[in-house]
Amino acid sequence: MPAVMVGGDDEQVRALARRIEAELACATGHARRLRRQNAWLGYTGIFAGALATLLAGGAATNGAIGGQWATTCGVVALLAACGTVASGLQRQLGVLENLARATACAGKLDALRVALTITRRELREVAIEYERLVEGNREFLS
């Protein structure tokens, strides 16, 4: 049964709701940044690898760029290296895992906001869940 908010409880609910909103904005910002980083690194890896492959294939059928094999091989190697570095950074930095965690954190915060302000779950219960969430996701908050 939802708790009835009276007196000081209303102010506590509003204060917790403001904290949850602020943390939600922060977690959402982290998720947005990680989404951009993931896209940039992913597309860079795909584009550079595909371009290196096309250039090498074109050189195999049509000859070297300007007749210079050293230049052709150097450009192919540079593109392949860029693709490898972008893909490696994406994995090494754990971008996908962090994106999933930040998105989940934002979703949980939004659920807590709804539980507190709309469904009017008990303040103490929401506060305990909020504390646990903050404790386990500090890197995405504040």
Give a description of the structure.
The protein is mainly α and 142 residues long. The chain has one domain (8-140). It is built from 4 helices and no strands. The protein has helices at 8-62, 69-92, 95-117, 123-136. The protein is rod-shaped and about 80 Å long. Residues 1-7 have low confidence and may be disordered.
E-strand count: 0
Distance between the termini: 33 Å
The main pleated sheet reads as: none
Radius of gyration: 25 Å
What class would the helix/strand composition place it in?
Answer: mainly alpha
Shape: rod-shaped
Number of domains: 1
Mean pLDDT: 92
Total helical segments: 4
**How large a portion of the residues is in β-strands, by DSSP E?**
under 5%
Low-pLDDT parts are 1-7
> What's the helix-strand series?
HHHH
Query: Helicity range of the residues?
Result: over 70%
Chart the SSEs and their pairings.
Elements lengths: L7 H55 L6 H24 L2 H23 L5 H14 L6
What's this, in brief?
The chain is mainly α. 82% of the residues lie in helices and 0% in strands.
